[in-house]
Structure formats: structure tokens, C-alpha cells
Amino acid sequence: FLANWFGTTTVTREWIDSKHKEIDEEPVGNEAHVGVTPLTDMQQADLIVTKHWMRMLVWQMAMSKCLLSSNSSKESLSLSFPVRLSTQLRALITRFSRQAIEIHGSGIQQKLFELTDTIANVIITVPAATVQETAGRVDDFTFLIGFLFSLPSFDPVQRDILQNKLEQLQSLFPYSASEAGASPAASDVTYTSSGKPPHHDLPSPPSRVVWHEMAKKLSMAQPRDAPRSDLARLVEGV
């Protein structure tokens, strides 16, 4: 895996697709552990986030080799693949308790940051087919950063990076982030061990809130110019 990441061997579309399938087929829920001690909610949350993070790393490898396309028939080779993870991450945060996620500390926060930052880059650089689809993407993104910004130990540098992405989205899409009314996909994550979604105090994204008010609430940091991402340079060449 690392040999491919650093470019010492050839990465092909077939290799990328096979790695995505291997990750997808890896079980994370208690249904895959019959006869052994059931996984706790904390263990499941960690495994699911790590699974999404690994899929994102493989996707970035494909991007670095110019193997992605805006019209690929395979999800793993699509430029918009990361935004499809955002609904699954939102569902994870919604269905597991805050403690089940927070207890993993900086490790899981780093993975969630990298996923959320990549999702923002795709929203900014890869146009959606419709305005409603764009609003749904933005709605999921603001939900994710709302969760990360609410963590007391969230890294301030990473907070500034996401705040900058929020300001860029504000400029590009100056309408309500909740216009599409996007909702989590229950089939994408595992329920808690009790079979019911847990109760926790994370508020839903505010409905019909204009961008500049959202930005003020999420961070007091001043917006700043961000370096152009690899994804932006890639899209310009498509």
C-alpha cells in the first residue's frame, strides 16, 4: 500500500477499483462477529471512520495518478466520490453517541478532518448536476464542520482551514445551506448495540440560515486565502 502511495510501483484503475472493493467488503458491524464478543459502539465508530478514511486515501492515490473522471461509471474512479462519503459520515455522527466518537481523541479527529477537508475541495471544484444536489452537499459539509468545531480539543489550525473552505463555499453558493433538506442514509452505518439510534446533544444544522450568519457562528477566525489544491489543478485540466 505504501509502495503504491509513494509511486514506487504502478497504480492502475484496476488496482484502485479492487482496493475499494476490498475495503467495502470488510465487515465492521456485530452481524459479522457471530460467536465472539460483540463490538462496542466505540469500536464500531472507530472502524467505520477508518474504513471511510482508507477509501479516501485510495481515491487520492487515483487522483495523483490522473485516473479519475467526472463521468466514470465506477464510483471509485469518480471525481465526486468523496462527497458520497459525507452523507455516510453524517449518519455515523447522528447514530452513535458523541462519546463513542470523542473517546478516540486526536486520531479519529484527524481522520474526520481529512475527510471533511477533501469533501469541501470536491464541492468547490467539481460542479454538481443540479442546484438541489449542490445544496445537499453543502448541507452535509456544514453538519460535519459543526460537529468538528464543537469538539473542545479540535486543532485550531485545522479549524482555520475548514473555516477558509466555508468562506469559499459562501462565495460560490450564497444561498441557504439547508435548501435541499439532505438527511442521513440509515443503511450506510450500523445501529448501536441496543438496535436504536442513541440520543446525543448535537443540534441539527439550522434551517434556512444564510451563509454569512453560519460562518460567524461556526468560527471567529478571519477568512484567509488558501493554496490551490491538487484537486483544483486536476479539474482545470479535465
Automatic annotation (TrEMBL):
Keywords, in A-Z order: Nucleus
Keyword field contains Nucleus: yes
From the UniProt entry, list the residue stretches annotated as the region Disordered.
184-207
Q: Tell me the PANTHER family matching this sequence.
A: GLUCOSE TRANSPORT TRANSCRIPTION REGULATOR RGT1-RELATED-RELATED (PTHR31668), TRANSCRIPTION FACTOR, PUTATIVE-RELATED (PTHR31668:SF24)
Highest taxon in the source lineage? Eukaryota
Quick check: keyword Nucleus in the entry? yes
Q: Which organism is it from?
A: Aureobasidium melanogenum
Know the name of this protein? Uncharacterized protein
